[in-house]
């Protein structure tokens, strides 16, 4: 074979490897949503009614164990736990892990919607993502000017 054919074959192999790599990355999902979707059992019957962004999953493990598994892989921005469950906040998503039968139900939802729904559990913990509310100009006289 001529040398130019080797370059063509190498280029085709590189393109094929790139395509396979991209398919693997995007098919497995990333972030806490992808992790939960691939490690726990989907339970559409437990989705919260009226919330199109909510997805429910189940695990036979208790909420504290499930929370540990998720936070080992994806570190949350904020975390709160009480007797009703474990509440993990990420940049755009929230993972709510609550006791269900002999295991857990895991709700994935938008962080803002989760804050409104579970404010009594997370209101004291989930605050601004930046220190001192820097994304908000109303910090007092002379701030942000």
Write up what this structure looks like.
By secondary structure, the protein is an alpha+beta fold. The protein has a domain of 96 residues. Helix content is 39%, strand content 23%. It has 5 helices and 6 strands. Strands 1-2-6-5-4-3 form a 6-stranded antiparallel beta sheet. It is elongated. 23% of the residues are buried. About 6% of the residues have low confidence. Keywords: Membrane, Transmembrane, Transmembrane helix. Pfam families: DUF4247.
Question: Short summary of the structure?
Answer:
The chain is α+β, with helices and mostly antiparallel strands and 145 residues long. It has helices at 3-28, 31-39, 63-73, 111-117, 119-122; strands spanning 41-42, 55-59, 78-82, 85-89, 93-100, 103-110. It has a domain at 32-127.
Rounded Rg: 21 Å
Mean pLDDT metric: 82
Number of helices: 5
Question: Which parts are unreliable, with pLDDT below 50 for 5 consecutive residues or more?
Answer: 129-136
Overall helicity: 25-40%
Strand order of the largest sheet: 1-2-6-5-4-3
Instruction: Label the structural class.
Output: alpha+beta
Name the overall outline.
elongated
- N- and C-termini, Cα separation: 70 Å
Beta-strand residue percentage: 15-25%
Largest sheet: 6 strands, antiparallel
Secondary-structure element sequence? HHEEHEEEEHH
The number of strands is 6
């Amino acid at each position: 074979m001529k040398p130019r054919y080797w370059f063509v074959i190498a280029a085709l192999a590189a393109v094929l490897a790139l395509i396979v790599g991209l398919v693997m990355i995007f098919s497995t999902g990333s972030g806490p949503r992808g992790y939960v979707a691939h490690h726990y059992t989907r339970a559409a019957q437990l989705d919260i009614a009226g919330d199109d962004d909510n997805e429910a999953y189940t695990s036979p493990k208790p909420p504290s164990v499930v929370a540990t598994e998720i936070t080992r892989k994806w570190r949350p921005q904020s975390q709160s736990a009480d007797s009703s469950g474990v509440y993990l906040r990420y940049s755009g998503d929230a993972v709510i892990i609550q006791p269900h039968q002999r295991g857990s139900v895991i709700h994935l939802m938008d962080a803002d919607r989760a804050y409104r729904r579970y404010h009594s559990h997370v209101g004291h913990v989930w605050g601004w993502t930046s220190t001192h509310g820097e994304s908000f100009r109303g910090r007092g006289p002379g701030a942000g000017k």
